[in-house]
Specification:
Elements: E1 3-16, E2 19-32, E3 36-40, H1 47-54, E4 62-67, E5 70-71, E6 79-82, H2 94-104, H3 109-122, H4 138-151, E7 156-160, H5 168-185, E8 188-193, H6 196-202, E9 205-210, E10 215-221, H7 236-256
Parallel strand pairs: 3-8, 3-9, 6-7, 7-8
Antiparallel strand pairs: 1-2, 1-4, 4-5, 9-10
Helix pairs in contact: 2-3, 2-4, 3-4
The protein binds adenosine-5'-diphosphate.
Adenosine-5'-diphosphate (ADP) is lined by residues 14, 16, 21, 23, 41, 43-49, 214.
């Protein structure tokens, strides 16, 4: 697999009236095309900042990000983002939400509708095309947000704790939905979480970040075969991995406190 995302010596300092914070300190990372990479670490270790820099929403203080060989200097059509809060427009139906981004991209009305119908089918929302997002459960609303992003056909999907606001059961359903979608769509996914089980269930590789300043502490391959199910979280290999990651994150969090 060739490398699609190249993060090269990226550092980020935030300055405020109370001084400056080194949020990321020379982080380098390659993500292969089609890979599912998870950023894991305690709060404040720079996961969101790194994701936002990859997505062109935050500028780096030094270093660079390239996607498909192109420097990222702002939002890029190759990159779609999904956040924890549901980013749908409440005044538009589900179908119109999905078609909305396409309007900006200049597609014809018929083309937009065709695309919206196709995407809604792929994410299991066909029945809900004509309802408003507020009429849907949290999990379904997050599917709408994912569908809106997918409609623009990005190569890379950046996801910042997208299931963080969901109840435990819906979260498990959405994890499995996302992996199925990733396998079908062959996207490259970078996913931020502080939930260790979620990281192991989803990732090909887990990038563990340590705080103050944010650095890559280690990169772990997840050797557990797919499809991974919630039952597997009790199996010895999963339990061992969870234990090792938990100990590591605990140590980092205590050292930073
Ligand atoms: P994480 O996603 O791992 O919780 P963040 O990337 O949100 O971490 O934050 C990393 C560090 O950068 C934290 O110390 C945070 O307070 C600081 N930080 C993040 N965004 C800003 C900002 N816009 N202004 C000032 N400091 C920030």
């Amino acid at each position: 697999m060739s490398s699609l995302i190249e993060v090269n010596a990226v550092a980020k300092t935030f300055s405020s009236q109370n001084g400056s914070v080194l949020a990321l300190d020379t982080v380098s990372l390659d993500v292969a095309e089609g890979e599912f990479v998870v950023f894991l670490g305690p709060s404040g270790c720079g996961k969101s900042t790194l994701l936002r820099i990859i997505g062109g929403l935050t500028s780096s203080s030094s270093g660079y990000v390239r996607i498909g060989g192109r420097n990222i200097a702002g939002p890029d059509p190759a990159v779609g983002m999904v956040f924890q809060s549901y980013t749908s427009f409440p005044w538009l139906t589900v179908e119109d939400n999905v078609a909305f981004g396409l309007e900006l991209s200049g597609s014809s009305k018929a083309g937009r509708q065709r695309r919206a119908t196709e995407i809604l089918g792929r994410v299991g929302l066909t029945k809900f095309a004509r309802v408003y997002p507020s009429q849907l459960s949290g999990g379904m609303q997050q599917r709408v947000a994912i569908a809106r992003t997918l409609a623009l056909n990005p190569k890379v999907l950046l996801m910042d704790e997208p299931f963080g606001a969901l109840d435990a059961l819906t979260r498990v359903e959405m994890q499995s939905f996302l992996v199925d979608l990733w396998m079908q769509e062959r996207k490259t996914v970078v996913f931020v979480t502080h939930d260790i089980d979620e990281a192991i269930l989803l990732g090909d590789r887990i990038v563990v970040l340590s705080p103050h300043p944010g650095r890559i502490s280690e990169i772990v391959d997840v050797p557990i075969p797919r499809p991974r199910t919630i039952e597997m979280t009790e199996e010895p290999e999963f339990v061992r991995m969870r234990h090792r990651l938990r100990t590591k994150i605990f140590q980092m969090a205590s050292a930073a406190a």
